[in-house]
Structures are given as C-alpha cells and as structure tokens.
Design goal:
This is AB hydrolase-1 domain-containing protein. The protein is of the alpha/beta class. It has one domain: Rossmann fold (3-Layer(aba) Sandwich). It contains eleven helices and eleven strands. α6 packs antiparallel against α8. The protein is globular.
C-alpha cells in the first residue's frame, strides 16, 4: 500500500527525476462546486476539459451496497488479514471500455516572472476525500495552506484538476469508472495536452518547458503509476502522503478512523445523484482521524476540509491487478530531505530505494507534527519550501 503513516508524522516522499481527445461532456458532480479559482499574484483560468479514455477496466464482482452495514462489511473485508478460508475476491473479470468525461481544472501562472520558473508547470493530482481545492483553498487562511499560492510566489505555474467523480468533473459510478486505470488514462491525456500548449492560461509562449507531477496520497499512487507506464512523460515528480513500507503504512487504521458511510446517506443534498459505490466521512471526526494530527491542528482548517470534502469510489480502494510495479526505468536525479532524525525514516527508505534504484541522487523528507493531509496541517508552507527549493536546485 502507498498510503502514508497516519501517526503524528507525515511521510513526505519527494522524488524528482530529471528526464524528460475529445468527447461529449457528461453531467458535472454537484458536490460543492469550487467556483472560480484565484491565487494571490497569479493569473488563473478555469477550464472544463473534454477527455476520452480507452481502458481495460476491472469489473466489480461484489454485491453493491444497499445499507451502511454493507459498506462497513466491505471495509472490514478490505483491511482484515488474508484468510484462505474466507476469500476476498472483489473483481469478476475485465473488459475494454471507452469513456467520455469533462474534467474541471484551473491553470495559474505568476503575474511576474521569477528566475524563469513560470515555464515549469506543476501538474497537481489530489487524493481521496478532496477535489482540486486541496491545492487551492478558497475560504480558509490561504497564506498558511495554499500550495498554489506558495508555488506562484516562487515563480512556478500550476495546473490543478478535479479527478473524475469529484468537484466539477463528470459524475461517474463508484463501482466502475472511478478506478485507477481510468484516472491514469485521464492524467496521461491531461499531461500530453498541457505539453502541447493546451489549457495553459496566460503562460508566456503557451507551451511549458517542463512538467513536474505533484501528487498527494491516491494522487501519488496515480503519479507513480504514470511514470512507470511512461518514464519520459514527466520532467519531475513530487510524491506526498505516501510510503513504501508496511511498517510505516497503517492502511487498516486509516479506514477504521475514517468511518466511511454511503455518501448519499451522509448528506442527501450534497451527494445527490451519486450511486451507493461512493463513500464519505460519516462525520467530521472521521475526517480529523484520517487527515489531521490530533496534537496540532487548526479547527478552522478541519471544518473547511469537511465543508469541501468529496466522496471516494469504493473501487478506488482496491489495488490494481498488477500491484506496485516500481519505477526502475528512471535514471535521473532524485532527492529525499531529512527534516527529522534519520531513524524516523529508516524503515521506509530501503523499499523506496528499491523501487527507484536507478535514480540519483535520492532523498526524502518527513514533515513533523503533520497528519496525512499535509496541506492543512501546521507549517504546511515549510513543506512547500522544501519542495520548491528542491525544484530550483534541480534546475526546474
């Protein structure tokens, strides 16, 4: 599993590797539409982007949920120890699928050039429970929490989007189209179109010189999968909220703490129209347990994230057939920063190094006193500074 340790420290992997369609729109998700996005010091433009995907999709093989007891039983099956006498077989096969979607997105570039960084575009993919407001919060203290605002202040451009099924992107089934293969196909399409100069707002010259992929949690899983699938597609990668060792990854605790219920039973108005395959925090306490450090958090930030919280598809919780194939074809430099004593990171450095064993140099950072949702935890800008310093030192 690639989810972060959910204790008082967030494992923040910063991995940098220097290398190198259009369809009919579907209905948008009505859940808390972000509205127009703005960033201090930035020129921002919102988009609704048509995307067509062709994937080999896994077929949900379990009974669909009719009550929250069913959802709880699914989570229990997901997190319990494997048993030869009680098999858990969530898929019944696979099939080739074509899908047409509309993806809500925002592109921001700095109003003033700073060291030429504006031609480096950060393509940010959020994790479960959020939409693009994870990167660009609107009504909470943006100077403390906005990754987009911080990146713009350092001269970088940023492209943020709502993964399908969240925000203003197309509404889909939590049992099928929200699976990893479809998310990956959408991310691939968005990357290629940005590279060609589409949807780049007021970026000087239109085309980026570099694209750096930034992910959080499930977004990091997608980003990792992207560079495994095509090592040349990204000029750099920053993975946050992820770990590569079972000793630092408490997957069962994450979902036990989240207390996930069928989304349209939690808030029928907010999650109207979503099928029973979409799950959401039963209350704010599940959100707090999953994403915040109980010893150090801002209640205003917690309640903001609860207000903008997005449902997650049950099929998103299931690993793909191939598991984690690694990223062994990367040969460019990467970095990990030690922000806490090295002993805190020792258990998870070896498996991460095994996955990226051709990358050099290789460094990581652990952000102290943070929960899994690093962007809304104390000193988030300190983590952002590590990330952007890393990019600058790496020539991006």
């Amino acid at each position: 599993m690639l989810f972060a340790n959910l204790s008082q420290h967030l494992v923040l992997s910063a991995l940098l590797f220097i290398s190198s369609t259009s369809g009919a729109p579907s209905s948008s998700n009505p859940s808390n539409s972000p509205g127009s996005m703005e960033v201090l010091g930035g020129n921002c433009l919102d988009y609704q982007i048509p995307v067509t995907t062709q994937t080999e999709a896994l077929i949900w093989g379990l009974p669909k949920f009719t009550t929250n007891y069913d959802a709880s039983a699914f989570i229990l099956s997901l997190i319990r120890r494997p048993s030869p006498t009680i098999p858990f077989t969530p898929f019944s096969g696979s099939k080739n699928v074509t899908g047409n979607y509309t993806i809500g997105a925002t592109f921001c570039s700095p109003k003033e050039s700073k060291d030429g960084h504006e031609k480096t575009v950060l393509l940010a993919t959020h994790g479960l429970g959020f939409d693009r407001r994870y990167w660009i919060p609107s009504t909470v203290n943006t100077s403390e929490y906005s990754f987009a605002e911080y990146a713009i202040s350092k001269g970088y451009s940023i492209f943020m989007y709502d993964r399908v099924g969240t925000g203003t992107s197309s509404k889909v089934s939590g049992y099928s189209e929200s699976q990893i293969s479809n998310h990956l196909a959408i991310l691939t399409s968005l990357t290629n179109r940005l590279r060609s100069g589409q949807y780049t707002g007021q970026l000087p010259g239109g085309k980026p010189s570099k694209i750096v992929h930034v992910g959080h949690s499930f977004g990091s899983i997608l980003t990792h999968s992207l560079i495994v699938q095509d090592p040349s597609i990204s000029d750099g990668v920053i993975l946050t909220g992820t770990a590569y060792n079972q000793t630092t990854t408490d997957f069962p605790a994450f979902f036990e703490g989240a207390r996930l219920n069928i989304a349209n039973t939690v808030s029928p108005a907010k999650y109207h129209g979503l099928d029973s395959g979409y799950l959401a925090f039963a209350d704010v306490y599940g959100n707090a347990a999953s994403f915040f450090n109980p010893a150090a958090f801002d209640p205003d930030a917690l309640w903001y994230t609860q207000h903008v919280a997005q449902p997650l598809g049950a099929i998103e919780l299931l690993p793909p057939k191939s598991g984690n194939p690694g990223a062994t074809n990367f040969t460019g430099p990467s970095s990990i920063w030690e922000i806490v004593p090295a002993t805190a990171m020792a258990p998870w450095i070896p498996p991460a190094w095994d996955l990226f064993n051709k990358a050099k140099p290789f460094k990581t950072a652990v952000h102290p006193k943070a929960g899994h949702g690093i962007n809304f935890n104390p000193n988030a800008t300190g983590a952002y500074g590590v990330m952007t310093d890393f990019l600058a030192l790496s020539g991006l």
